[in-house]
Recover the amino acids of this structure.
């Protein structure tokens, strides 16, 4: 019964996190999404101008300046008003932030599963278990060489963040038209790959 209750609790937590992420990306709360979006973009743009160490140090100094100033302000205010409210961050200092053994095991299992799946997939592609899939992977890597020549890693990360906060909203508003165009592109790609598959010896999939 306890194990079932723990599993139900974990599923609820995961559902809550997933729901919050969806609400964030779909701008259900404009202020919250705007704050997260602008903060992440500001951090990434800062990294394009300064090193990771400098950005981390500046962020830490900014946070320390805010907390130290607030602590001194509250101490002076308590001294003037002769109150005994205690430490202004007491609730946060007493908050439990340590990961439990169950949480560590859960995350470790997920990382292990993901790593094993990726290694098996890479082995399948590089050792050409399926010729068509390996050719698709080769084309993707070839395209990435051009992408890498045009953009660095941080630029791609900035574009990814912008896409995460814009594409879901655009898709939600124009879902029918986008699905129609995606279907046409997919049909064309499948047609081309079918012709290539028919001309290359040994390219037929096993299920065919």
């Amino acid at each position: 019964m306890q194990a079932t209750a723990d599993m139900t609790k974990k599923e609820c937590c995961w559902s809550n996190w997933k729901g919050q992420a969806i609400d964030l990306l779909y701008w259900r709360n404009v202020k919250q999404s705007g704050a997260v979006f602008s903060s992440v973009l500001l951090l990434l743009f800062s990294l394009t101008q300064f090193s990771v160490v400098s950005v981390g140090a500046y962020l830490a100094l900014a946070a320390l300046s805010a907390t130290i100033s607030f602590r001194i302000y509250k101490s002076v205010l308590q001294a003037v008003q002769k109150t005994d409210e205690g430490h202004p961050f007491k609730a946060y200092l007493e908050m439990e932030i340590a990961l439990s053994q169950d949480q560590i095991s859960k995350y470790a299992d997920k990382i292990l599963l993901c790593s094993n799946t990726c290694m098996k997939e890479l082995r399948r592609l590089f050792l050409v278990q399926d010729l068509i899939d390996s050719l698709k992977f080769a084309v993707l890597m070839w395209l990435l060489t051009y992408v890498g020549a045009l953009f660095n890693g941080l630029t791609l990360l900035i574009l990814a963040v912008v896409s995460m906060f814009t594409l879901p909203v655009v898709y939600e508003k124009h879902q029918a038209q986008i699905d129609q165009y995606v279907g046409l592109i997919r049909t064309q790609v499948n047609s081309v790959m079918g012709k290539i598959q028919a001309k290359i010896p040994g390219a037929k999939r096993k299920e065919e």
User: Anything to note?
Assistant: DSSP finds eight helices and no strands in the chain. Helices lie at 2-25, 30-49, 52-81, 90-93, 101-126, 131-150, 153-173, 175-199. The mean pLDDT is 83. The two ends are 47 Å apart (CA to CA).
